[in-house]
Amino acid sequence: MSPTPVQETSSRAPKSQQSLTIARAAGGEAIGGTVTATINGQEVKVPLGTTILAAAEEIGVRIPTLCHHPDLCVAGVCRVCVVEVEGQRTLQAACAFPITSPIKVLTHTRKVRQSRRHVIDLLLSEHYGECYACGRNNNCELQALAKEYGVDFFRFGHPSKPKYEIDCSSYSVIRDNNKCVLCRRCVRTCIDLQEVGTIEVAGRSDKSYITTFKDKPLGSVVCINCGQCINRCPTGALRANDPTDDVWAAIDDPRKHVVIQTAPSPRAAIGECFGLEPGTPLTYELNTALRMCGFDRIFDTNFTADLTIIEEGTELILRLHKALVGKDAAIALPQFTSCSPGWVKYLEHFYAEYIPNLSSAKSPQQMFGAVIKTYYAEKHGIDPKDIVTVALMPCSAKKFECNRSEMDDSGFKDVDYGLTTRELAKMISEAGLELPKLSKSDFDAPFGTATGSGVIFGATGGVMEAALRTVIELVTGTKVESLFDKANIIPVRGFEGVKYVELPITDVGPVPDILKHLVPDWNWLKGATLKVAVAHGTANAKKVMEDIKAGGMFSECHFIEFMGCPGGCIGGGGQPIPTSPEIRSARARAIYAEDAAYDVRKSHENPDVLTIYQEFLTDGPCGRKSHKLLHTHYVPRGKYIE
Amino acid sequence: MLMTDRERLAGEIKALAEQHDNCRTALIPIVQEIKQKYRKLDDFAMQVIADQLGIHPVEVYSVVSFYAFLGSAAHGKYIIRLCRTISCDMQGKERVMRQMENDLGIRFGETTADGKFSLEWANCMGMCDQGPAMLVNERVYTRVTPERVHEILEECRRSFGVHATEQKEVYLV
């Protein structure tokens, strides 16, 4: 593995706006040495440049914040975190005050408390709505602050009428500016963290508001539906388009056969909605809960994740074969993964010329929809028009994906509803179920068996790891375990923005049965070096794409995994709120632990996958039938809108 | 060579951006220049500017909507901005305003049908001792009286349009 050449500090944000947190790697001795801060009389030694907020945290003093977020750059706009600093005439925002000389700070004097209370009162005077009619009730940072500071009346009034229209134009994200407190977390998420640039502040002073380009509806501007803004919104101003009423209606309708597929990431995170620590997997308790809610069948999306690996892996092999043996210069390489609908839309908008590089294989969610309404319906004698497919996803973009017009290859809408983790947690609570206390139960046949490879799709690098496990074994004929301990391909794991791995293919084995009709032998791959890369979050994807455009090292790659959200699906826009780097790594640990617990950990060894190729997709991976049902095409959207 | 309006506009913006090394700090000068020439900044222009400077269209919109003097709506050849702050108000901006509205047949915030004049309010321009003050494009007029309004408007009319009797555009930069 060679080090990645991509600069981590290429954030577009001006230097002054970049995060002030300084890594304490060198045993607390950062460049420039340390400085002593006296907070409420207690001394603490911190690296030069540490914010008052971080220094206070170290000695257990919690300063309330609202616009501050661990994933985002400093804003200092909400003024909730004000503190008294000796020698400063006015109160200072603790989140935006780097300690550069010994200072004395007081964090809860009368002046400070009163100012914070006034700030909260002022925020509430602009915040329309009643808490009990809000999706963020009990999970709202403004509500929590109001409680903490004992707000018992509206000192500066409370709006009686909504000021803005609610923007429901997007399939995924709903914007309700009436609840917005202008903390600009969504703006920093969209522009700095994701580099998509859908929303910004327009206007000035008391007339400023968060908006899209020319106030157009969200559904018609450049938005990739990643929902990262939802995860970081402190109030209910941003929320996902919630289909739970429709799902309940389908469950209540006796004529409908309601099938749900659950993705791996929500299972690792849903416990957070029930007060459990991040990283507590509840896969089997969730199955019980879903049955008790009334879903007729519960399937594991991992099954189609395995199918995706077979299809996408075969597509890669075909591309490589055509390019290396056929010397076909028109073959687009590297091949990009297409599982993340946020990334797919990002590419369609910003790098439409690279659409041929995108794998034509559908995402696991859409494959499942198509398989349920054809293979499953046929096998069980159910009329596909009576089947309602619901997908439990960590993702808000999946809502958009299932509504894409081309996603009806089964003859019906392949996936009817996309549910997020949060929405399902709500349904489970509504059904009166105490999820963590439920008994365990397994998935339903015929898509019950999954492999560890499917599970790790949820974390960044997971698709690549799953693909490598399969490709290595199919091509070399040797076990992955002989190359990587316990088949854990560590180099592609972790939260580094961009990862790059080279794998020399020294030996080749016989062509397995499943691929015999496509390639005669593997000799053309002997001695080749497989170059792969992994990027998560569209800001990192952008770095890789720019490098490819410039003909850099990533243009030499063969296969690149892209995920739209930071951390991959576990950090998806449908996951429980809040999110932070620690929460995401806890969820990732749960996912990798679940993978390690599986007996079968490679997609091509999944017996159900092999069965579907024998019974249904009889012309094999990337055959005619699988192309009809499991593959799709993309729309060049461009970044210009009318 | 035939060129669509859009291609021409895009070419102009590109040239302008290149003068500034495609740096995002050049956003305001580019917007000013395009606005001066086309008297509006449409959606397409904003997107081209964003593209050239490596920022997002919504950021251009954000900046344009922040500054009262930028604004993306179409406006007339002459933007008349009358100061509405306290000292100009006390010195009779109300009468000047009425005179202008009567003369042009439009209200403040509107543009005449022939696209010559737009009336806008402005806040203090530092001419408090010589109020009422107003701006016609970039030229300041002080101690404006209702009688002078007519004169000023005539001066503008003479220098612009098919019936222009004076060729030079006196106060257009």
Topology:
The complex is a heterodimer of chains A (642) and B (173).
Chain A: E1 34-39, E2 42-47, H1 52-58, E3 82-85, E4 92-93, E5 103-106, H2 110-124, H3 141-148, E6 173-175, H4 185-193, E7 200-202, E8 209-211, H5 228-232, E9 238-240, H6 244-252, E10 257-262, H7 264-269, H8 283-293, E11 297-300, H9 302-324, E12 335-336, H10 341-350, H11 364-380, E13 387-393, H12 397-402, E14 417-420, H13 421-430, H14 452-455, H15 462-476, E15 498-504, E16 529-536, H16 538-549, E17 559-563, H17 581-597, H18 607-615, H19 624-630
Parallel strand pairs in A: 1-5, 10-11, 10-13, 12-17, 13-14, 16-17
Antiparallel strand pairs in A: 1-2, 3-4, 3-5, 6-9, 7-8, 15-16
Chain B: H1 5-19, H2 27-38, H3 43-53, H4 57-66, E1 78-83, H5 86-90, H6 93-104, E2 117-122, E3 134-136, E4 139-141, H7 146-158
Helix pairs in contact in B: 1-3, 2-3, 3-4, 6-7
GO molecular function (chain B): 2 iron, 2 sulfur cluster binding; metal ion binding; NADH dehydrogenase activity
Protein name (chain B): NAD(P)H-dependent oxidoreductase subunit E
Family (chain B): Belongs to the complex I 24 kDa subunit family.
